[in-house]
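Render Cytochrome b5 heme-binding domain-containing protein in 3D.
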Amino acid sequence: MTTNKAEKKAQVVQIMRRRHLVQNLGPIAFNSSPRLSTNLPGPPSLPSTASHRLHPALGSFSIETAFFETFVGNTTAPNVLTKNLLENLKKRTGIPAEVRIGGITADSTYWNASQEVSLSNFIDKTGALQNTTIGPGFWESVKLLPEGTKVVMNLNLEDLNYQGALDVAESAVKALDPEQLDLLEIGNEPDHYLHFTPQNYSDIWGTWANNISSTLGLKAPRFQVAATVEDPLWPYDAPGASSQLDCLARIEMVSCARAASIRISIVFLDLWQPRIKSVREQLGPDSFVIGKLHTNTNGPVGVFPSYSAYLFVAETLGHSKSLRIANIYPGRQANGSTITTALGDKSEGQLVAYGFWDDKPSGHEFPSKFALLNLQIYNQTQTIPRPIATFDISGYLKNARRAVTVRRLTAPGADIKEANVTTWAGQHFASGLAAGKFMEEKVSGGRIVVKASEAVLVILTDGKMASKQFTLEEIAKHNKQGDLVYDLSRFAGMHPGGLSVLLDEAVAGQDATDAFFSLHRHEVLLRPQYSRLQIGVVVGEEQQIFPRAVGALSKVPYAEPTWLTEGYHNPYYKDHHRRFQAAFRKFVEEVLMPDAQAREEDGKRPSQSVFDEMAKLNLIAMRLGPGEHLKGRVLMGGIVKPEEFDYFHELIMAQEVARMNARGYYDGSGGGTYIGLPPVMNFGKPAIRKKVMEEVFSGKKFICLAISEAFAGSDVAGLKCSAKRVKDGRDVGCRTDQGGMVVLLIERGEGVETKIIKTSYSTAAGTGYVTFEDVFVPYENTLGPDNGGLQVILSNFNHERWGMACGSVSAQRIIVEECLKWATQRQVFGKPLTAQPVIRSKLAAMIARVESAQNWIENVTYQMTHMSYKEQATHLAGQIAFVKKYCTETAQETARDAVQIFGGRGITRTGMGRFIEHYHRTVPFDASRLRQNVTTSRILGGAEDVLGDLGVRQALRKMPKNALYDLSKFAAVHPGGRSVLLDESIAGKDATKTFYSLHRSEILRKPQFARLKIGEIEGDERRHHNTPIPGSLSGVPYAEPTWLTPGYYSPYFKDSHQRFQTAVRKFVEDVVFPDAQAREEDGKMPSKHVFEEMARLNMLAMRLGPGNHLKGRVLMDGLVKPEEELARIHARGYSDGLGGGICIGLPPVLNFGKPALRDKIAAEVLDGKKFICLAITEAFAGSDVAGIKCRAKRVDGGWVKWITNGTFADYFTVGCKTDDGGIVVLVIPRGDGVKTRPITTSYSSAAGTAYVTFDDVRVPYENTLESDKGGLQVILSNFNHERYELRTASM
């Protein structure tokens, strides 16, 4: 290395790796094939010459002082790349990497306390960097390093200016926290200048180190000996050297910048062994490090192609609790050359193998990992086939047939400088965070193939928990600092909550499961830096919590829609939908999720590699839904055929992508295509359409929809951007000369400018302010007809809103899952959070909202699969507006509830509640409305109030209209007087609006008014809805469910259901309705003839649902429940009186009664001759069935029962407490000792609600309803069916 200061202008990052002594285990035999092969014979146990336990930090970075700010940034503009790199390493190893600030430029660095800029480099006319001056701002940049990072500051030695070195040291000590400033280093590679010898360097070093320590009051030791280029200069065997150890913390070895640096270091290691041993004996095992073996990193500032190589090292060393390392091959070489050819070595020493043994109490019988390197040079420019080598490691495996895991560090060639093509385990780290699909291989037989210029990590263990077992008594002994079982000794000082938390008497030496999970997510334990801390398991305990495999379904209740939940059924989805969902979720979690979390944080656009992967599987094309654009494409690797792909596949995609919890990235990775490309596909000219579609579907180009303006906002018709027709084209547009609108496809180019807009979600969405200034657009780029642009723009709104609703439901479901998991693991007041009724209430509301939204969106999707595009526009515009409004309203309610459940964690961007905070912050993007004078801004798909208004206006267009009435005979008796009818706005006019502003339509059904109708208005073909045929359907929008609405579809109901519904409705309106209105008014029980008519049609039996009780009966064929139609009589009390008691009182008899009793009562009740009720509600117990006080005592031949409850029934199904504290259910006929008294309620007494008392009633034993699980089970058995019926009727 030259001493010319001109060389100091090079921008260099150096990596110092903590490597320790490596040893050879024996000779290796090779064959003579061009395909190299080596057998590693063993033995598998740890060699005696292996290294000591490795330092957990594993490595550090050396960054030139002059360029430190370039790599780290400053407080105004921090370097996100560097931040991501270092944070990622910290996560992987559990300990931040050390950062050395120094190198060549350290020996020309000075301090200026009054300097305004943080760092200033003086470069002469020749372009050579002469010196660097740092000011107070420099240390603010240092503080940008990840929390916990240790800093080594390199001091200027070359000028022999002690005051200058002291000034820099003092500024560092004052500016940095003592925990951050680890060491000071005097000089850099001093054997390359001023003719330093071991003796004179030691003299100067010792003097400066002691004086600086004394002047600044430093606690020894605080100094590091500088790295040298050749033989280390520190004279441990020199007289008086030990007196200088007072300030010495560590010596850094070798700073080789030569191509053969690794080979030279191997030679030096042998020569330095006595010195290394001496240093470690005096200063500890981590006091001697190999520095900067990997130096002069390729690539410009901001690009770090060798980072993947460093991750290889970190992954190799960092995933175990503690490691010891031994060199398996090649052996130590006295001259740095190859192994002697006498041993048959044809590799020229370019195959290297390292074995790693976990340092654990159970011993070192087998290694846990291998690092295999093929150092043969292969460049991407070479045309020859890439050489390969095979390592046979079977001698080190417990079972050679068992598969091992292989991860590769690879690139197209050794000369590659681009970071995005150098990959570790399939992922690149151009941004500092993982991008691309994580890949690893399973290899059996122990033969591992490694390409030239490639390295692999072989993981030999199966990843299960440590095998050593501890009893609870043994654990209790380990409750002191430095001796923690789930060994936290190394981590204790870094614990975010402080050391005292770990030493708390409820944690240290205890089963800390509950304490841990009340504060942490389970995923924490899966991170490499924490998983390696586990050293054993508790005797007699089994693992209870298991991580969800990549792509697998969640086992948390309601975390998946019912069609993906085991045990449930669904008519919408077929096998190819299920295969597609499984494959796509795996893709999302392996490829999209890592990139999404990184980009959501740094705000950059989604990585190009992600778009490339999506394009390979034609996912970009599939995001546009089914259609001609999919023909001839292989979808998702052939899992689904183009002709099979439907809107349910698209729904799956929208809902799986929403699971990323990265709202900005969600839009940035496909939102623009989703809304910007359909106008081109549907209205573009063929050549333009084909060109743009292929470019976008390939992931090479991107498209967006530009219609929102500052002036117009959501008012598309109010756009001000203008387009003027000129020869062969237009000057840009939307508003035309004629006042109409035109839509143009404009390519990025001259006159087009974009500027990022910062919103409350991530700039990864790419939201931008776009200006078009005198842009010429070829006429063939016009989409749709001139002045017909509004239709082009509006054409995709339904599809866009539907897609947003799909994603909204899925995002809500993720939050439901997060809340359920948190509420079950979080401990408050000594109990799980779920023990709090208010929390359970919030969870219930969240679940109900997401399930109803999912069912609605699936119903709409089913309509879309059966409707043409035109039919969708006619029938679904309002439906989709309503469903999006509902989904986004419930989303905001769920977001608020989730924050309440998570508490303070729900508003933090990191840790347990990060998903909740992100959701709560970004959910308004899908919806807004004015609430309590607070407007939530929203631009995506339409505000809730606007969508609701749209849906209602769509419905009003379909409202049926007028009929003609002759009121001459009625005028004299009109309640409002004759003058009202003769008013000029009514008589002889269309009085529809005036009439309905005063009256309900039901008035016209009454016979005295219906006979006044004399005809229809000529030319008015709209059906009149006020005088329907009995049993007919309503023409009012949304008055009927979709399956009964013309033009809609349902997978549930068949023709038989429709015929049954028509017959039941006619029966209700002809027979039940008149009696209902009369009885609701007078409060009497339903008329006997109604029960007789219902019994004749077996409607009473059908009200109990399908079952054996229907066998042999003549039914109105079908399964639709009559209560759906009975609810239409608008007589709530009468409805209950007509059959409510039967529906809840008879099932216990049918299911648990003895045959004779069952058959007798069923025949009498179902034939309408007698009535039954369920009597379990008491004043003392209420809904608490187990708390009833009514008692039954066993006597000879039966039971005696007294006190409380009933109806006007003939039979009472009654729950009673027994002498032994249990519950028995009895069927009690009306008779002696049974008294009933009506209870007045807010609805009609036609319901028969009554207070029933039983006083010394003797009940035959055969009237007991028995179950193996007791009387409580008898009572509870029908609750689900009862609740289902109540919900059905309420709708």
